[in-house]
Amino acid sequence: MKAAIVGNLFFGLIISFFAFEIGKWVFKKTQTPLFNPFLIGTSIVIFILKFFDISTDDYYRGAGMILFLLGPATVSLAIPLYKKWDLFKKFFIPVMTGAVVGSFVGIVSVIILGKLFGMENQLIFSLMPKSITTPFGIEVSSMLGGIPAITVVSIMLTGITGNVTAPLISKIFRVKHSVAVGIGIGVSSHAVGTSKAMEIGEVEGSMSALSIVFAGLLTLVWAPILKFLV
After folding, report:
1. TM spans, by residue (predicted)?
2. Are residues 111 and 50 in the same domain?
3. Residue 13 and residue 60: Cα distance in Å, rounded?
4. Which of 56, 126, 134, 185 could form a cystine bridge with 146, CB 3.0-4.6 A?
């Protein structure tokens, strides 16, 4: 019975959507950032796999469809850019400056901390693309010789952290300009953070979505250049 269910192509897909919907329901009821839908959903999936002793290969057979859709989803981020094209042209320099500096600092900080904590080079390579969206991150990790599975986990945790802490960090550092808030969220916590930016405001969401694309492309450039520091 278990083999028949787990072997179904749609098993991982159904479990993923089921877990995420529960996460959304919990977040809606609590309105607490710590009960983020992504965090709750991920925890539920991990629990199910562990409790029922289901291999990740069986789960990924169906859930991999979702990962495949991340590519088209990233391309669809052009929609908010199109809607805010005039705003982008007006703030072209801040957007590009934020993307260039943010992607550079994100990589260098991983290298420095990795060295301080004595991490192996392969692990550092795996964490270097943590701040960009998953399709870009997997590509960069593979290119550097990292472990894509670790990269995916680090990207997820980075996004959740950004989603939860973005409003608080903006408040602490008194970042009030909508464009600055959006760029900061997009460059540091990709699509998961952008969902929070869209909750904050349309301009923040648009700038965050725009920053994701540039941060991803720039990381593809920065990562091989900065690899020599490891």
Report:
1. 6-27, 34-53, 59-79, 91-116, 136-157, 178-195, 207-229
2. no
3. 8
4. 126
Contacts 24+ apart (CB under 8 A), 27-34: 33/163, 33/164, 33/165, 33/167, 34/164
Q: Which two tokens stand for residue 204?
A: 């923040």
- Whole-model pTM? 0.76
Enter the tokens of residue 23: 């996460």
**Total domain count for the chain?**
2
What per-residue confidence (pLDDT) applies to 169? 92
Q: What is the dihedral of CA 51, 55, 59, 61, to 10 degrees?
A: -170
Same domain assignment for residues 160 and 206: yes
For residue range 69-121, what is the model confidence (pLDDT) as tens digits?
776 766 776 776 677 788 788 888 998 999 999 999 999 999 999 999 999 99
**Domain membership of residue 225 as a residue range:** 80-229
Nearest to 101 by CA among 225, 21, 219, 220: 219
**Number of residues assigned to the chain:** 230
| Strand (E) or helix (H) holding 177 | none
Burial of 167 by CB count in 10 Å (0-12 exposed, 13-18 middle, 19+ buried)?
middle
Q: Are 216 and 132 in contact (CB under 8 A)?
A: yes
